[in-house]
User: Fold this.
Amino acid sequence: MTFCMAVGEKTIVVSSIDVDKCFVYSLDSGNVKNLTESLGEAYKNIPINNRDLQKACAAFSADGKLFAYNPNKGKLLSIWNTTDWTLVENKTLAKHATNIVFTPKTNIIIVGDKKGDVYAFEELPVRILGHSSMILDICISDNEKFIVTCDNDEKIRVSHYPNGKNIVHYMMGHEAYVSGICLLNNFILSGSGDSTLRLWDFDNGDLLDKLTLKTAIQSVIEIEDLAAIQLYDSKEVHFIKTEKKENKWNIKSIKTIQFENNVLDLAAYGNQLWVLTGNSVHKYTIDASNEIISKIEDAEMSHTFKTLSDLVKSFVCMENTNLMIFLYNKMIEKQKRIKQNMNNSSPPVLHHTKRLKTT
Assistant:
């Protein structure tokens, strides 16, 4: 996923790590700023990275005062003051970032990387936990007592925060990389390359329900009491909610929205869902209690959509550096090898033995 989008109260950010652009659009003034152009001459002189697998990441702090993203070059974490969009600091990462989030109360930046490590960035980076494979998504509980992480090796882990080495439990069952997680109504919802959504009990890690979609899942995000689901290489966004039937919690499919171009990313702010596609940006409002999903098409937003669409059209995607394409292709190759080995394997030969006479 070499494109990403983040939404604040008065700002929308669209970023492409392949072309090394991070556009900030003000909903108030309509002004646009490319943050990458303000990273300094030393950064500009570094050759663009068109070799390493990368994933575009970006996030606002809960209070909206800070913004962080990963530029293309130098394994950087770039932190900005959103009041006047001035650079606060560039921090150097040990490995390329695969996920950036802020803690909901204390606004500490949490970064997961390709090695499988998760760091908390205050004055100095502190390694709080590690997986045996790359981190693909991170969630922090509202009370900041727990951190939920998922990885490339089919695992979901709940750990104490900030002492992440104290593991609460693992949740196993996915049959491919776990691409996204979110905390939904005190449950954990996960999506995977195996095309399944799974609902887990946060307290004990038990699997409560499973829903199979038509293709691999790329991301899941919570919005109000619903979750929006982005599929891999797809023009669709699915919406689900949790529902209790006969004393059992289930995943209930609500609606599917079809777009003209592939969906590149999803971002939520309050009850608003923003959808980034290959040639445009779309906005929806969510009424979770009544399961109503409404598209915003008023005249006041037309200039916003036009400007954002023009910015998105300047992005390009290089498949050789797209981490999610790599993971998907790796999964398909593994499935082919398993199928081929099953076809090539012959059943065991049972040899007849002579029965010995007994006297």
Notes: Helices lie at 41-44, 302-313, 323-344.
